[in-house]
Amino acid sequence: MSRTVIRGGLVITASDEIHADVLIEDGRIAALAATGTPAAESWTAERTIDATGKYVIPGGVDAHTHMELPFGGTFASDTFETGTRAAAWGGTTTIIDFAVQSVGHSLREGLDAWNAKADGNCAIDYAFHMIVSDVNQETLKEMDLLVEEGVTSFKQFMAYPGVFYSDDGQILRAMQRSAENGGLIMMHAENGIAIDVLVEQALARGETDPRYHGEVRKALLEAEATHRAIKLAQVAGAPLYVVHVSATEAVAELARARDEGLNVFGETCPQYLFLSTDNLAEPDFEGSKYVCSTPLRPKEHQAALWRGLRTNDLQVVSTDHCPFCFVGQKELGRGDFSKIPNGLPGVENRMDLLHQAVVDGHISRRRWIEIACATPARMFGLYPKKGTIAPGADADVVIYDPHVEQIMSVETHHMNVDYSAYEGKRVTGRVETVLSRGEPVITEREFTGRAGHGVYTPRSTCQYLL
């Protein structure tokens, strides 16, 4: 039996803040006891970690990543090996990535392909959602089988006609199936048909720069699609999780649905909380670094997102980590913004940026852990194995120094991408040590993990329903 004791830290979960020592046995949390009490003092272990003056928090759960995703004729630049290593550096110990069904192929083929990419390469634990691109009778039957196997969430797109797009009828059928089998539909809510018209018109006017990506993907078209997805889910009697919510109007649709008592949930991402259309407008094609969908919005939208996180109209902050290098990848869209690969790097930055939000007074410490660890674990059937520090939970634990200042930069990050979306941003707080199932992955700012330590983790159905 291997034992580790973490002594002297402030243990923060979604529900509690306590000065406690933590005993870990064989990869799981065995006990907590108030620091300095006879119970805590009696513990002996092969490894003792001094967390005095530090936070002891659950490892982050990033429920929205895209490692090695094919998009626009290229692939996301982080592999499962580089991406999960970077996640660990940022205090995230579980990712849920998206396996992709291609049109004309089965869900199983897509899931098998993503299992092959990840198997033996991950530094931290991982699970999968399933992107459903081709709804038919066979696909619907496969959804039942995947739920039984622990792939319990399915993503559909109202955007990207000709690639991932599903029409309202296909969406309704998938929602009806998920209402029966317990799965959760995740929705990319943008009116892709209308957006394509606006893209075509903008390009015809010679509006080709990256900033036009944000201008054609209008907030009203996100709100309209969010409203439509909610109504379709209501017809189907199914829960709905709307991904990467970016706009005031879309938050209002979610809030209204939740006020009506519907099982409707919303996720936002750090880029919408900290970046804006000012970044998309950066000169010399630098704005292409910030092209993602839904797009960055004007700064005034940020207040509604923070408010939604405080009022629980938004429940989760994930990254939508989907990095493409500026050189050779983002540059594919020079002269035509519609050809810029959509996606930003962020898996390493999320926990630190959200701690900065605590420092800035946007959210409390417990809310930080709730939106970054506990709720994503509950939403996607991983709790209490993941997302908390409690007896029986996996010992995914981060020792976090809340006092150290750092400057985010491509020079110091570990993501496999040639720029930082937060270049030069000064934040307070930094990960010091990370345990994944009790094993040190980051040890006092050194990577001590290995590819293959991370294991695939099947999930139960959503534990967050009203």
Look at the helices and sheets and give the structural class.
alpha/beta
The percent range for strand residues is 15-25%
Report the total helices. Answer: 14
Form type: globular
Low-confidence stretches: none
Percentage of residues assigned to helices:
25-40%
Summarize the structure in words.
This protein has 14 helices and 18 strands. The protein is α/β, with parallel strands linked by helices. Strands 1, 2, 3, 4, 5, 16, 17 and 18 form an eight-stranded mixed beta sheet that branches. The radius of gyration is 21 Å and the shape is globular.
Short description:
The chain is α/β, with parallel strands linked by helices and 466 residues long. The protein is 31% helix and 23% strand.
List keywords for this structure.
alpha/beta; 8-stranded parallel sheet; globular
Topology (SSEs and partners):
Blueprint: E1 3-12, E2 17-25, E3 28-34, H1 38-41, E4 47-50, E5 55-58, E6 60-65, E7 70-71, E8 74-75, H2 80-89, E9 92-100, H3 107-118, E10 125-131, H4 137-149, E11 153-157, H5 168-181, E12 184-188, H6 192-204, H7 211-216, H8 219-236, E13 240-242, H9 248-259, E14 264-268, H10 270-274, H11 277-280, H12 302-311, E15 316-317, H13 350-359, H14 365-379, E16 397-407, E17 426-436, E18 439-442
Parallel strand pairs: 1-4, 1-5, 6-9, 9-10, 10-11, 11-12, 12-13, 13-14, 14-15
Antiparallel strand pairs: 1-2, 2-3, 5-16, 7-8, 16-17, 17-18
